[in-house]
Design goal:
Layout (H helix, E strand, L loop, with lengths): L23 H29 L5 H8 L7 H23 L12 H17 L5 H29 L8
């Protein structure tokens, strides 16, 4: 019998297997959580600024311009919705294992949403003076937290928050 060394060969898995593979059901659960999160987020992220008279379409137009020159704000909204319904939920599905807090697991959605909020602030900064900028920071942070909590809650109810063992 040959002795086994601690070095792994190219054919052996070094990191091990995940306890929960990424299934179609888990992906659909993530999408459902993202869509539900967007529905809860929308009245806060758009409604409050509209009520205060500080909502601006220009940052959405600039966002769409990253993909298509001279794009409209409507296209910027579509990109934002697509990101919230599909991209961020997939990212959460893959990374949730590594996010704090340990318990309750659904709060990890707020953790990932906070990280994405930092990029959101950079991309959508309104540059509209102290009041507008202050409203922007407060409202968008709360909206992202709501989004993340709903994302996490829906996923936990539908499929559970993934726990990958690596």
């Amino acid at each position: 019998m040959a002795e086994r060394t601690s070095e792994a060969t190219a054919e052996e898995q070094v990191l091990g297997k995940t306890e929960e593979p990424l299934t179609v059901r888990a992906v659909l659960g993530a999408f459902a959580g993202g869509i539900a999160g967007l529905l809860v987020m929308a009245p806060v992220i758009a409604g409050i600024p509209i009520l205060l008279g500080v909502f601006e379409m220009e940052p959405l137009e600039r966002f769409a311009d990253l993909v298509i020159a001279d794009a409209s704000g409507t296209l910027g909204v579509a990109f934002f919705v697509a990101g919230g319904a599909f991209v961020l939920p997939l990212f959460f599905l893959v990374t949730a294992t590594f996010l704090p807090p340990r318990e309750p697991k659904y709060v990890r959605g707020a953790t990932i949403a906070t990280l994405f909020w930092a990029a959101f602030v950079f991309i959508f900064w309104p540059n509209g003076g102290l009041f507008v900028d202050g409203v922007f920071l407060a409202v968008t942070l709360v909206a992202h937290w709501l989004y993340g909590l709903v994302l996490g809650l829906v996923m936990q109810r539908l499929t559970g928050i993934p726990e990958h063992r690596v």
